[in-house]
Amino acid sequence: MTIRTFQINLMFTSILFFLFISAQSLDNGLSSSPAMGWNSWNLYGCDINEEIIRNAAVAMKSNGLLKLGYEYINIDDCWQGDRDSNGYITANSTKFPNGMKTLADFIHSQGFKFGIYSSAGEYTCGGRPGSLGYEMQDAQIFASWGVDYLKYDNCYNDGLYFERFSAMQNALNATGRPMVYSLCEWGVLSPWEWAGVVGNSYRTTGDISDNWDAMVRVVDDSLYISKHAGPGHWNDLDMLEVGNGGMTVEEYKSHFAVWAVMKSPLLVGTDVSAMKQEIANILKAEEVIQVNRDPLGIAGDVIYRKGPIVILATILEGGSRAVVMWNRHSQDNGPESSFCDRKGVHCIDPPKQFHADVEITVEFTALGLQSNTNATVRDLYERSDLGEFQAKFTAKVPNHGVRILKVVPVTGEPLNLDWRPWLNYALI
Ligand code: GLA
Questions:
Q1: Would you tell me the crossing angle of helices 135-145 and 162-175 to the nearest 10 degrees?
Q2: Is 0.70 topped by the overall pTM?
Q3: E strand spans, 169-300
């Protein structure tokens, strides 16, 4: 047998094994809408302790974020100490001197749910003890602490995916405690195709970082797969960078609106005790959050794309449409190079419009409505009604920014309630 044939056989066996295991399927009844909350990683990385987590919970509550639905306070990697003599994982006693149960009790007393992190390999990505071979014990101890959410990473995976993620799924089910199960395998094996019966969400890409290019890359790698998402199993575009300082306010507004319409979990990753007003306005944009939490749970996707102009949309309960008109013009897609001579010595200024606000039009037919439809349009960040429009809507969109709209058809029945253009997208 050649190595290639061996690899194919191994993969095939893995899939069969996975299908057998997953016949039990995740049935925890959780995450009917994408998870919302706070996570320590994007801002603090490994540099966490009990005080940081407690303060985050207090600030999430006093800032009104809990009330808006941000209900999970999640500790990411690097909370772990060693395993005890019976194999049970302990918390790092310097960073978490009172242990995880005490911290979980505090988080719960503030009205939140409590999330924790582990990895399906021997070690976590931060080099702490992973759960491989200890799935049952880890799930049990998490349940005994009162954990409500587990992010399960993929480092040191030895090339095995399905088995290891299913092993923790079974271990969680066996505890009898409902815990959101958030898979983090970075989109490597197209988890949108198989992880919907294993976990409540699954990362679609590698890690985000706090800059425009990284954020756009995450989105572009997550397009055309929305049809696989739905209540209880969501595409996870990674945690929010909103507020961490590496993007402009317009860019953060784009980040948040796109995450909302694509129905990604919304996990705040910044210091909410020291947020500027313009950042709070984004994270607290209630009508944008409502798009994410719409009861239909239909994940949006791209409906128009021409160069740097991208329009994403989804259908909401009752037949209205949520639309994100996104202006991605920037130096990368402007014509700068063609304005230099071949050696790049003599250049002229690029046309200003490539770095400026542009007008974007959304045709109502692109939203599955009849061409003569009249619809009211509401700007969801601005919280203002823009009026009634026929056939299309045009608005100026700031550079690197969005307009996120609710379009409510008022004439031109039928509403085409089954409108899901992304069902026709070829599988990726
Ligand atoms: C991986 C994950 C990140 C974070 C780190 C922690 O990189 O993708 O989200 O959890 O591990 O080590």
A1: 40
A2: yes
A3: 180-183, 201-203, 234-236, 266-268
